[in-house]
C-alpha cells in the first residue's frame, strides 16, 4: 500500500526540521526590529511578509499579516498568527502556538507543545512527546511522531498521521482519514445527508491492536465500520475488499449513495470502473494505447476540441477514464475548445499534470 497511500512527508518534515527552521528564521532577523535574544520578549507585527525570530524563553509573539515567518527556540513561547500562509517553527519545550489564517505551516520539535489551528489547508507537524494538537479548519494535514500525542480535528477532509506510541486521535469532521501506531486509539465520525446538509450519523472508536486495526494503515469510517483508506489517482476511497490487484471501493463522493467502484492496480498504475470488466478495459487502454506522436508538433497555442483534449491528456499522462471524468466533473465550466496552455493551467496539481506540461516543454515549446 506504500504506493497507494500518499505519505505526509512534507508535514513530518515540518516537525523534523522545526529546530532548523527556528534557527534559520532567528538568524535571518539578526539586527532587525523583530529579533530578540532576551527572555520575556514581546514582539508584535501587523505587516505582511514579516520575519520574526526569538531565542529567549517565555517569548510572546503575535503577527496579523500574511506570509509571516516566525521562529522561536526558547521554552514556554507563546506564538499567535492570524494572517494567511504563515510559516511557524518552534524548537523549545512547552510552546503554545495558535494560527487562524489559511494555508499555515506549523512545525514543532519541543515537548509538551500545544498547537491550535482554525484556518483551512493547515499543515501541522510535531516530533516532540506529549504534544496536543487541535485543528478546526478543513483539509488539514497533521503529522506527529512523538509519544503520547493527543490530536483532535473537527474540520472536513482532515488527514492525520501519528507514528508515536499510545496516542489518542479524534477526527470528527466529515471524510477524515487517520493512521496511528499500535497501542493508540482512533475516533472517527460518519455523516449522512439530511435536507441538503450533513448530520452526524455514527461515532466509533477503535484501538489499534495491530490485527483488526492495523499499525500504520490509514482508516476512514464508512457505513458504521472502520475501512482501510486509499487514494487512487487523487480519488479518496474506502476499501471494502481486495483480491489480488483488484480493489472494491466506495469513493468519498459516493458515501451517501454507496455506489461501488472497482480499481485495478499494476506497477503503481490504476484504472477505475463500475464493474471489474470496465476497470480492465480502462486499464488496457491506459497502459497500451499511448501513441503520442500525433501531438509532437503541437504548441501551447494549439487549439483542440474538448474531446481531443481528453484523449490527448490520457494518452500523454496515462490517466484513466474514471479519474479524468472525476476531474472534468469538478470544473465550473466546460468549453468546446481549449488551447494547450489552458489545459496546462487548469490541470495544475492533478494527476499527470507535470508529465503533460513537460511533454510540450521537451518538444521545444518553453
Concise overview:
The protein has 366 residues and is an alpha/beta fold. Helix content is 19%, strand content 36%.
Looking at this protein, list some descriptive labels.
7 helices; globular; 27 strands; 366 residues; alpha/beta; nine-stranded parallel sheet; ten-stranded mixed sheet; disordered N terminus
Strand order of the largest sheet: 2-4-6-8-10-12-14-16-18-19
Count of discrete alpha- or pi-helical segments spanning 4 or more residues: 7
Task: Output the radius of gyration.
Answer: 23 Å
> Terminal Cα separation, in Å?
37 Å
Uncertain regions: pLDDT < 50 for 5+ in a row? 1-16
Q: Can you give the helix content as a percent range?
A: 10-25%
Mean pLDDT: 84
Main sheet characteristics: 10 strands, mixed
Task: Give the overall shape, derived from the CA principal axes.
Answer: globular
The total count of strands amounts to 27
- Tell me the fraction of residues in β-strands, as a range: 35-45%
Structure description:
Helix 1 packs across helix 2. The chain has 366 residues and is of the alpha/beta class. Helix content is 19%, strand content 36%. A hairpin with a 2-residue loop joins strand 18 and strand 19. The protein contains seven helices and 27 strands. The radius of gyration is 23 Å and the shape is globular. The strands form four sheets. A ten-stranded mixed sheet has the order 2-4-6-8-10-12-14-16-18-19, with no helix packed on it. A nine-stranded parallel sheet has the order 1-3-5-7-9-11-13-15-17, with helices on one face. The chain has a six-stranded antiparallel sheet with strand order 20-21-22-23-24-25. The N terminus is likely disordered.
Amino acid at each position: 500500500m506504500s504506493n497507494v497511500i500518499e505519505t505526509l512527508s512534507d508535514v513530518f518534515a515540518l516537525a523534523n526540521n522545526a529546530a532548523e527552521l527556528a534557527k534559520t528564521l532567528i538568524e535571518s532577523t539578526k539586527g532587525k526590529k523583530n529579533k530578540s535574544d532576551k527572555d520575556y520578549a514581546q514582539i508584535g507585527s501587523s505587516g505582511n511578509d514579516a520575519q520574526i525570530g526569538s531565542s529567549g524563553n517565555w517569548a510572546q509573539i503575535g503577527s496579523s499579516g500574511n506570509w509571516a515567518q516566525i521562529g522561536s527556540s526558547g521554552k514556554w513561547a507563546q506564538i499567535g498568527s492570524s494572517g494567511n500562509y504563515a510559516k511557524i517553527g518552534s524548537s523549545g519545550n512547552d510552546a503554545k502556538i495558535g494560527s487562524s489564517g489559511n494555508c499555515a505551516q506549523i512545525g514543532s520539535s519541543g515537548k509538551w507543545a500545544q498547537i491550535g489551528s482554525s484556518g483551512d489547508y493547515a499543515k501541522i507537524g510535531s516530533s516532540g512527546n506529549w504534544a496536543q494538537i487541535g485543528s478546526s479548519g478543513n483539509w488539514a494535514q497533521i503529522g506527529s511522531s512523538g509519544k503520547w500525542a493527543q490530536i483532535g480535528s473537527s474540520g472536513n477532509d482532515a488527514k492525520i498521521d501519528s507514528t508515536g506510541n499510545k496516542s489518542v486521535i479524534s477526527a470528527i469532521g466529515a471524510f477524515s482519514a487517520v493512521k496511528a501506531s499500535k497501542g493508540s486509539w482512533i475516533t472517527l465520525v460518519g455523516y449522512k445527508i439530511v435536507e441538503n446538509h450533513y448530520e452526524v450519523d455514527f461515532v466509533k472508536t477503535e484501538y489499534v491492536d495491530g490485527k483488526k486495526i492495523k499499525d500504520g494503515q490509514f482508516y476512514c469510517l464508512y457505513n458504521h465500520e472502520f475501512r482501510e483508506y486509499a487514494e487512487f489517482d487523487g480519488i479518496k476511497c474506502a476499501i471494502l475488499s481486495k483480491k489480488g490487484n483488484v480493489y472494491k471501493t466506495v469513493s468519498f463522493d459516493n458515501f451517501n449513495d454507496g455506489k461501488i467502484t472497482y480499481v485495478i492496480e499494476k506497477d503503481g498504475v490504476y484504472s477505475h470502473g463500475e464493474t471489474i470488466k470496465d476497470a480492465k478495459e480502462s486499464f488496457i487502454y491506459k497502459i497500451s494505447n499511448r501513441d503520442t506522436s500525433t501531438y509532437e508538433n503541437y504548441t501551447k497555442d494549439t487549439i483542440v476540441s474538448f474531446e481531443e483534449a481528453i484523449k490527448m491528456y490520457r494518452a500523454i499522462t496515462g490517466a484513466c477514464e474514471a479519474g479524468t471524468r472525476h476531474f472534468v466533473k469538478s470544473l465550473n465550466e466546460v468549453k468546446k475548445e481549449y488551447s494547450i496552455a489552458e489545459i496546462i493551467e487548469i490541470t495544475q496539481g492533478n494527476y499527470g499534470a507535470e508529465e503533460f506540461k513537460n511533454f510540450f516543454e521537451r518538444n521545444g515549446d518553453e
